[in-house]
Amino acid sequence: MFGLFKKKKKQVELFSVCEGTFKSIEQVNDPVFSGKVMGDGYAITPVDGKVQVYSPVKGKVMSIFPTKHAITFVTDEGIEGLIHMGIDTVALKGDGFNVHVQEGQTVDQNTLLADMDVDFITEQGKDRDIIMVFTNLEENQKVAINHSGAVNKAQSIGNIEL
Hints:
Glucose Permease (Domain IIA); kinase activity; phosphotransferase system; transferase; Dup_hybrid_motif
């Protein structure tokens, strides 16, 4: 009656990974991401210079790509995701990236994952967007973003409703 005894939905809080400008995943300049082929998520266009990239969630690092441009993670609730730094940056073979975490490491929004040399990446003709995509969402699990425009690192920007 009146929803008093309804269970509150569990949520995974999402954070900005760096200082920059929020971008919906549909705005990303790559059809695999913008078409949500890998899953739903969001992106941040980072500021110029060397950018520190932080974890978008509380969880654990699952893997670090040998080319340092991508890191996979799993949240405490079992949601799997991918942080992809730049578009087509795999071709840089690790140049422009410095990773600060190890596989299996516990992380939260204040954990520095990597440094990204945005100026170098742009000079190489690559897109600078940092994309967060959640790869194992069920049909009833939704990414809900409550922010637009400029963001700071570790800023709460939304959640995944479980």
